[in-house]
Amino acid sequence: MSVIDFTHNDITNLINTIGQKIENKHHIDLIVAVGRGGFVPAVYLSHKLGIKKMVACFIDTYDNLNVKKPLVLGTDLFDQSGMLKISKSKNILVVDDIVDSGQTFTVLSKWFNLVHPETKVQYACLVYKLSATFSDVICGVEHRDDSWVKFPWEAD
């Protein structure tokens, strides 16, 4: 399998692209970083958009061998404990590094619809694979093949 290596300069360019596409960016009152991959791009976007309030959620979709695991709402693969602080937020931006299958954002979308149906939620990622099932995503770049994407913060 081929690997696409993104540099820090690539990430800055993708953040700028995403920042230009976000609707009502001045009204976003919270960024949700999807752990672990979404932490770095969420911080970049926090600075770019001037949004200091952030929380984290952890969704584990790959095992230690990079094999995809099934993800179901209400399982221990979705740790939402950090999201208890979002009750007063009305315009949220959820950030991850990549949308591969779309299952992470699908689960989050279902959770927001159940727990906070009145909240406007936008989803953003650096790289969006066109094979994903979740399509309402603001992305830095669309990716058409099954190459492995490597970000500069990932350990070798």
What does this structure look like?
There is one protein chain. Helix 3 (103-115) links the parallel strand 5 and strand 6 (120-129). The mean pLDDT is 85. This protein is an alpha/beta fold. Helices cover 24% and strands 29% of the residues. It has helices at residues 8-21, 39-49, 103-115, and strands at residues 3-5, 30-35, 54-59, 78-79, 91-99, 120-129, 138-143, 148-150. Helix 1 (8-21) crosses helix 2 (39-49). The strands form 2 sheets. It has a 6-stranded mixed beta sheet with strand order 4-3-2-5-6-7, with helices on both faces. It has 3 helices and 8 strands, in the order E-H-E-H-E-E-E-H-E-E-E. The protein has a single domain, classed as 3-Layer(aba) Sandwich (Rossmann fold).
Descriptive keywords:
Rossmann fold; single chain; 156 residues; globular; 3 helices; 8 strands; alpha/beta; two-stranded parallel sheet
Quick overview of this protein structure:
This protein is α/β, with parallel strands linked by helices.
CA radius of gyration: 15 Å
User: Overall pLDDT, averaged?
Assistant: 85
- Helix/strand-derived category reads alpha/beta
User: Any low-confidence stretches, pLDDT <50, length ≥5?
Assistant: none
Helical segment count: 3
Number of domains: 1
Span between N and C termini? 16 Å
Order of helices and strands: EHEHEEEHEEE
Q: Can you give the helix content as a percent range?
A: 10-25%
Total beta strands: 8
